[in-house]
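Obj: model holo form, ligand = H79.
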Amino acid sequence: MKRQVTILIIFATLALWSLSPVVSSQSTAHHPPAKLNVKDENEVDETKAHRDERMRWWREARFGMFIHWGLYAVPAGEYKGQRSTRIGEWIMEWANIPRVDYEKFAAQFNPVKFNAADFVRVAKDAGMKYIVITSKHHDGFAIYDSKVSSYDIVDFTPYRRDPIKELAREAKKQGLKFCFYYSILDWHHPSQYVDAPGKDPTAGNRTTKMKPGAKAEYITYMKAQLRELITNYDPAVLWFDGEWQDWWTEEDGQDLYRFVRSLKPDIIINNRVGKGRQGMAGLSKTDRKYSGDFGTPEQQIPANGLPGIDWESCMTMNTTWGYKFYDDQWKSPQTIIRNLIDIASKGGNYLLNVGPTSEGLIPQPSIERLAAVGTWMRTNGDAIYGTTASPFTTQLSFGRATSKGQRVYLHVFDWPAGGKLQVPSWGKAIKRTYLMTNPRAALKFSQSENGLSIDVPAAAPDPIATVIVLETRG
Ligand code: H79
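Output (holo structure tokens):
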């Protein structure tokens, strides 16, 4: 009996450590795992080994596609002649559009050009390993076939079909993981209303009020939709958002986390299910245990990675998530590729967004950029997939590094003049070094306690990022 208790405590401690992105052990000491060793049917108990197994594909993947697709693609950033620098999927908020008027966009949402196989092919050719699509954004509109709501693509649009069924099937067919975004904030649900000066009570707003007594009913509705999503499409990740409402608590988040895991035990859930995230920086707070499996920096890359903590930076290619026809502030392929490398060098994933049109097409500038990333990844993917963060204690002056097994990959952004690349020492002896594009041609190098000097070609083989492989001893 005593031994069982000891084992239980060890497992509970491991489970807490693995579930909660706690950096210092101090906070765990002050907040013992009060609930985690309590067995009830909803409890998600997990060892570190179990969690590592559950997170394995996600950690190896490093690169995914975010898809923001919904009714907001119809106005595409313009309402009654009004445009905005704000994000397209928030038009119901910034143009102060009442529910009854916003609903009218549905009559024009007819994505007849949508082709699931093409979507997945574009992601796959870019080197992406998973797809996360908005099942329901803040506007409350479901782009899948929901039986618990008529505010969905099948019941409310002339399209009358479920594009998500095809997308989920295609993703699996082509070997990508299929995942859902789901907004807790809901501008359409009768439980919520806006109480802000100059605002229509049924428009969108950053925060909504919860009608007294309506929360339980709304949670039942969310759970019914989540059950549909999990049962009918088998997603690998649930990516929550809109959790910053004052009516949503960490306890609600933990309950929802357990609910989703109970429907699919090996699913992965982001930290926005509860109240752990630190604003747009997105990593989880450490003052107590929070629900969720990974941190979610938004439109930013943490200055330093956090060892042992899973996180994913989500970013746009222009300045909006949902399609805006006039947003032409596209990032260059170089910026996008270097962001991917920068994130991998810090131990994170990159979730890169596309915002399809209401016809069902990914904008051409996005297609072009994804193709450029794909070209780079076909040559250099080994230096991204399944890697962990840079082994160097400081950021390299010439670029970034990733590591995997006995290899360190140098991603050179700024090619050295004079044919020698100087690499600081990090305590490991080098056996062999070569360009990723030419493994048979070893590069000459010399190693001293000051570091490594590698003889490299005079000109940069790849001006965006040239990968040099270091094979280490031990
Ligand atoms: O779906 C996309 C956006 O529509 C949604 N998240 C991405 C993935 C989003 N982007 N910006 N916002 C939502 C605005 C939210 C901003 C804030 Fe906050 C809410 C600022 C203050 C409250 C975030 C949450 C930062 C602190 C808490």
